[in-house]
Amino acid sequence: MPDELVHQIRGSSARFIIAEPEILPAVRAAGDTCGIPAENYWVFDNLPTQSVPRGYRSWRVLLANGGTDWVRFNDEATSAATTAMRLFSSGTTGLPKAANISHLNLLAQHTVVTEYKPRDYEVPLPFPQRP
């Protein structure tokens, strides 16, 4: 697993890592190999049974920071050309390969799911929303 994580961190040009506490040691070893600074790790502690290990910060700290310096766009061409995430293949014919998923693709997937069978209830979010 560490070699594959190193490959994926390098292949995605990751600069920050958010990991669940249970896998943090393996993720940290791979990230350290790739030169990810110690302050660029956060813990995804979403379950009541999970805690943030000493020396780390919860991913929720990121929610407290404003989004005023985020790159913003609202046109289809930019949405189609801007990578939102990279997903990796299973690597059945060698090392896993990254597939770039655009913002437009993510929105299209969401639309397909939510418009196919709309919910008659609201899904509560795990953290408070800002106005």
Architecture overview:
This protein folds into two domains: 1-66, no CATH class; 71-119, no CATH class. Helices cover 31% and strands 15% of the residues. It has helices spanning 2-11, 24-33, 76-81, 103-116; strands at residues 17-19, 41-43, 57-58, 83-88, 98-102. Helix 2 (24-33) links the parallel strand 1 and strand 2. The longest helix is centred in the last third of the chain and has 14 residues, at 103-116. The mean pLDDT is 86.
Nearest-angstrom radius of gyration?
17 Å
The proportion of residues in beta strands is 5-15%
Element order: H for helix, E for strand:
HEHEEHEEH
Q: Rough shape? A: globular
Count of the separate structural domains: 2
Sequence of strands across the biggest β-sheet: 1-2-3
**Main sheet properties:** 3 strands, parallel
Calculate the mean pLDDT score and round it: 86
Given the structure, what is the number of helices?
A: 4
Q: Based on helices, strands and strand pairing, what is the structural class?
A: alpha/beta
